[in-house]
Amino acid sequence: MKRAVLTTAILLSIGVASAAPAPVADATGSSTEDRVARLERILQAKQQSEFQTLQRLDTLQQEVLDLRGLNEQQGYQIDQMLQRQRQLYEEIANLSAKSAQAPIVATSQASSTSSSSTLGETASYEHAVNLVLKQRKYDEAIPAFRGFIKQYPDSTYAANANYWLGQLLYNKSDFEPAKQAFDTVVNRFKDSNKRADSLVKLGMIAEKVGKVSSAKVYYQQVIKEYANSAAARLAQQQLSAL
């Protein structure tokens, strides 16, 4: 009887020893495979978060660049407005001074004719400028500047008059005659301080009518001939946008 019991005990111990090993588990009861799967999910989620963060950074950087370009362009336009305003005030002051110094009674027929011609020229230009600045009658200013240019094509105010005419026509999207006015400034008045701005406007007109290659030529000319100027910076912005 004792031998039978001993034999049974030995067989049971052998069976337990030969049984499959239990899976390795951590303190929480999870298997190694579960832990690996969980770590992979955590890593994937982290990578996805980092990717989304990089995307947001790229978007923000592009927005900053766009805003910087817009700010520079607006700064240029403000500088141009202030410069134009100062020039116009100086011109009006000069016109007023000339009018005040003009003799009431001419000493000779020749001097009377010369004085009348000068007063007619300055008064005509001042009238056209006032239609823009004081009266805001832009449609009436266009024929006023055209009349001045026709009557006084070689006037010291001719370059500015052509630029004003081109700007007024450009604002009305009347691009062909606007181009002619700006071309006159560029080709006839090469020492004018309006020449660089006129070249930029010619580039913009070329863009408007779909002549991209011509626009590039105008912008490159501004950058080459008027480097480091406000007009060159605007030309570079326009060129980069093409």
Our estimate of the beta-strand percent is: under 5%
Number of helix segments? 9
Largest sheet: none
Shape: elongated
Describe this structure in words.
This protein has 242 residues and is mostly helical. It is 80% helix and 0% strand. The chain has helices spanning 2-18, 32-101, 109-133, 138-151, 158-171, 175-188, 195-208, 212-225, 230-241. The protein starts with a helix and ends with a helix. 22% of the residues are buried. Pfam families: TolA_bind_tri, TPR_16, TPR_6. Residues 31-102 form the YbgF trimerisation domain. InterPro entries: CpoB (IPR034706), CpoB_C (IPR014162), TPR-like_helical_dom_sf (IPR011990), TPR_rpt (IPR019734), YbgF_tri (IPR032519). This is Cell division coordinator CpoB.
Any key phrases for this structure?
242 residues, mainly alpha, 9 helices, periplasm, CpoB_C, signal
What's a concise summary of this model?
InterPro entries: CpoB, CpoB_C, TPR-like_helical_dom_sf, TPR_rpt, YbgF_tri. The chain is mainly α.
Layout of secondary structure:
Layout: H1 2-18, H2 32-101, H3 109-133, H4 138-151, H5 158-171, H6 175-188, H7 195-208, H8 212-225, H9 230-241
Helix pairs in contact: 2-3, 2-9, 3-4, 4-5, 5-6, 5-7, 6-7, 7-8, 7-9, 8-9
